[in-house]
Amino acid sequence: MVSVLLFEDETVGRLNPVTLAKPAFAVTCGGYRLIDLVERLDPSWRAIVRPHLRGVVAEDFPHATGAGAEANGPVLAVNARLLPRAGILAWLRHVADRGRPVVVVSSGGDVVCALLPAGRSPSWDSDPARLSRSLDDLPREEAGSEAILLKYPHDLLAHHRDSFRENLDDRLASGRYREIADGLFAAPGAVLGQHVVTDTREGPVVLDHGAQIGPYTLLEGPVYVGPHSRVIEHSALKDGVAVGHTCKIGGEVEASIIEPYTNKQHHGFLGHSYLGSWINLGAGTSNSDLKNTYGNVTMEYDGRRVPTGMQFVGCIMGDYAKTAVNTSIFTGKTIGVCTMVYGFVTTNVPSFVNYARSFGQVTEVPDEVMIASQARMFKRRNVVQRACDIQLLRDIHVLTRHERRLANEPLSF
Fold this sequence. Notes:
By secondary structure, the chain is of the alpha/beta class. It contains seven helices and 39 strands. It has a nine-stranded mixed sheet, with helices on one face. A six-stranded mixed sheet has the order 4-1-5-7-6-8, with helices on one face. A five-stranded parallel sheet has the order 11-14-17-20-23, with no helix packed on it.
């Protein structure tokens, strides 16, 4: 039997801030994480991740370290940046079933997956940056259009809508949901308030177990609301919204991905955006997802301008970010991990800063402040703060030190 190894490669950092606090295989796109699909191939899968994530991954996925895994059989190594769409399962099985060692690469030459012969599986503490280069002696072939690697954060938004319908159909095929109205599916324990309006002409609305939908809410499919998440009364979720578990969502949300434990429960617009975990948007926070010129959006990553080819791109926020009341975020901006923003967000925002640039102030947030805030947030959700969670914040603070300059000027204190 072929075992599965998920690996982060040397370019996974291009997905930051999305992948600063979580491995790439745990990032949501189209309502699924890659790990949700890989577990069907091999429940005892293993992983190779960047060093600063090993503590959290070992706690959250104990078998990922390789303990008890088969060491002598063939291994299907899968790039953690692979787009999580349901159809990729059959494609991966096809690669595994051929039985001969092969490296499958993207059109750009990145390793999508590799079937490794017995004895070639790398260890848990292998250097992710060297893994793909260790496969040079194996035959190679191109993946074609079936397998897509996420390259930049905006790729999550580019592929979210395309894969969302396919992934929702895959969820519904599990039989865990009951159709309670035309195109509206609910798992046991989901609660629908009075006078909720659903429009399922473009896709289904799927409510997972324990989800709560407040009265006078519009749900325009495709929409997915995760377990124990709450949609506040008088809200509007439309045109492809995927909400993770244990979230509170309100206002108007369009074509966006919201990871678990994030709150956007007040009035305000969120469009074509990605929100990481443990984010809180203050009342009235809104983002722009369309340029005044109606042209395609160009993103900036590490000082490089990258065309998206998309007309609608909102904001991308890393885990633990916060916004103050009435914060306005300009089109196509990224906001780093553990950052607090105020006023007008007109530039990309580094990790671990208090950003009030429109008021003339940008200051650094000490890691100890965020560790204390994390403890309070976790306690509110009955989540235990572990030593690995604390160490992760400390490590990210160090890893992102180079970011904390704006317009080539040092932070003002």
